[in-house]
Design a protein that fits this description.
elongated; about 210 residues; mainly alpha; 9 helices
Length: about 210
């Protein structure tokens, strides 16, 4: 199966690469402001002036780095996924004896709990332009790839193809369940329910460990 490769950090359509320390600081301040604002209200209701003000910089500084609000949101996605890749990669690389499945499921579920506004905005935008969600989709494959690599290191060999397919399907179940909880909150376990992660982990193990 193909490996999902992360995109370079500054290779973002409509975003000026931030090569100087000061420029990087301003860019990061703008992105941080965007994350905070989108958790407080719908991203469509947030203006460029709102973002610049929250970041403590000028509207001109925004336009110097981003072509428009759409390019800014795509940069938010790219920046968030860079952080997530480093975090997940670090967790699964650490030989700490922890259950790698429990580790990665907990990390992914916590992201959904911490960034619900941002993720809802990305899903809404993807309804109009599916390309918005492509980096998120690639990241989902990246997380499964990292988990499979950890299993391969621990066992000294790659899982059999039919087992790998079950593992990837289990990750598909995880992502679909979390997205459904985020958007529809169907219950009985909402996104913030204290046992959601535990039950999600149990369901994934049942799929992975199922007999042929």
């Amino acid at each position: 199966m193909s490996q999902a490769q992360p995109a370079p950090g500054d290779d973002r359509v409509g975003a000026l690469p931030a090569k100087q320390a000061r420029s990087r600081r301003t860019r990061d301040q703008l992105l941080a402001a965007g994350y905070n604002l989108v958790e407080a209200r719908d991203f469509e209701a947030v203006s460029i002036a709102d973002i610049a003000k929250a970041a403590g910089c000028s509207v001109g500084a925004f336009y110097y780095r981003f072509a428009d609000k759409e390019a800014f949101f795509r940069a938010m996605i790219a920046h968030r996924l860079e952080e997530a890749r480093r975090h997940v990669g670090g967790l699964l690389a650490a030989p700490d004896g922890a259950d790698p499945l429990e580790t990665v499921v907990g990390a992914v579920a916590e992201t959904f709990r911490r960034r619900p506004g941002f993720l809802r905005a990305a899903l809404r935008k993807s309804m109009e332009d599916p390309s918005v969600w492509e980096p998120m989709r690639a990241h989902g494959h990246f997380v499964a790839d990292q988990f499979l690599e950890r299993l391969s290191r621990d066992a000294g060999r790659r899982p059999a193809p039919h087992v790998e397919q079950r593992i990837r399907f289990a990750f598909q179940i995880m992502n679909g369940t979390l997205i459904n909880a985020l958007i529809n909150a169907p219950g009985p376990l909402r996104l913030d329910h204290p046992v959601l992660t535990r039950e999600l982990l149990r369901a994934m193990r049942l799929v992975i460990d199922a007999g042929d």
